[in-house]
Design a protein that fits this description.
Layout: E1 12-21, E2 24-31, E3 36-43, H1 51-66, E4 75-80, E5 85-90, E6 95-96, H2 97-105, H3 110-129, E7 132-133, E8 142-144, E9 150-152, E10 159-160, H4 184-187, H5 194-210, H6 221-230, H7 236-239, H8 245-254, H9 266-275, H10 289-300, H11 306-316, H12 320-323, E11 347-351, E12 354-357, E13 360-365, E14 374-379, E15 383-391, H13 394-410, H14 414-430, E16 434-441, E17 446-450, H15 456-470
Antiparallel strand pairs: 1-2, 2-3, 3-5, 4-5, 6-8, 7-10, 8-9, 11-12, 13-14, 15-16, 16-17
Helix pairs in contact: 3-5, 3-9, 5-8, 13-14
Amino acid sequence: MPQQPTPSYFNYQIEKILGQGGMGKVYLAKDTRLNRKVAIKELNRLYVNEPTVRERFKNEAALLAKLKHPNIVALYEYVEHPDTLFLVMEYIEGIPLDKYLSEHSGPIPENKAIHIFLQLLEACQYAHEQNIIHRDIKPSNIILGAADEAKILDFGIAKAINEPQDQKLTRTGMRLGTLYYMSPEQIRTRNLDARSDIYSLGVTLFEMLTGKCPYSAELSEYDVALKVVNEPLPRAKFFYPNVPDYLQKIIDKATAKNPEDRFQTIEAMREALLNKAIDIAVTQKELNPQEQQNVVEWNFKTLKRKEDFELAQKQAQPNFADLAPSRNTPLPISTQDNTHELIEETVLIDQVFGKITHHYLGYYRGKDLFEKGQFKKIKWEKIEKITLYTNREIFSGVFLLAIFCYVYIITWNFFTLLLLFFGFGFAWVCFLEFPTITITKHDGKKWRMKGWPWQLKKAKQYIQQAEKVLENYL
């Protein structure tokens, strides 16, 4: 059940949860004063007392309050309490663009894609005119409503261009955004301007026209970062041959590695889209036939041609010096869900059963008494419950004790005496409690980890910490 609003927030009646992530939940609610539906974004209460996160949440409200545009979700109210923070926003009855692409349409037809994309350009141009860059343009932050009306949401990491940067909110080496849609300069954590949003729009247009993300989900974050910084965006026509040439050129120019080679303004990009032509040459290098083959097989035959990709990576000779991680520069943030890693990830517990943070549960799949298991991570949103139960291996203990006694009786000697003492010790262990942790996902799948009796205390600590974090997602 969704959490009820605080007493001072009684004018909003919570109806259901629309979505949730590591940073909070979004509710559908009814404004009883104006008899209208609203969306309420609540900050995860784990972060309410984090000054940096509170400031970011407040920053999102301040920036949204400046934006009044039909293609940007409207802010109605900002409510701040000691124990929680709320944003009350316009509720859009529609579907996220990423879900629309994956579950309904696939590649969007040219005319429809242009109709939707022009709305996104108008919204971004308006925001840029207010000196605000979004920094996280992507399909999951775009809602399609009736008559294909598009609205941009989630200005949680947006930035006012001309305002001084708060070093507490944006530290050197801290990446904000979603890796697949980041511009090269955003990955390098350099100063950003409107051209970074133009890059993200180019990747979004790519996905609208092809129905696919340009980078394989099987690639590591570091590998994706290298490709974004050093390699041209894969050709859209390789994913979907019906992409028109002029749209391919627009994508190429929007996603140029050097910001100086991109469209310098949203208006320039809009004019190119309407005129179906680009007068300025795109400076990205064309892919040779071998690279083209690699791009196709990277997306559709990854497991069969892994050795080809390793060879292609060596031939590309990326500049590792600029991207090599140092003690002060974390690797790019995870992008498996739609939340932002707004603060450094804190490890709450790290022990024999796994690692727990606010963003994921780490566990050892296949862990048994004599098997450590393989370390895996799972997002909290996918977990239904975590349980701990204990059992005693009484039958095994009695059976082993009987075997050792029998051997001692029929072959009495010093060595069988030692064996008997060993048998008594092992049988005694079998009478103790063996902990078993069960992780149940929402889709019904279960993973179990079994430990020795002397690991029972650690199992309880693991369960207690996991349940504490999980209750914020249920």
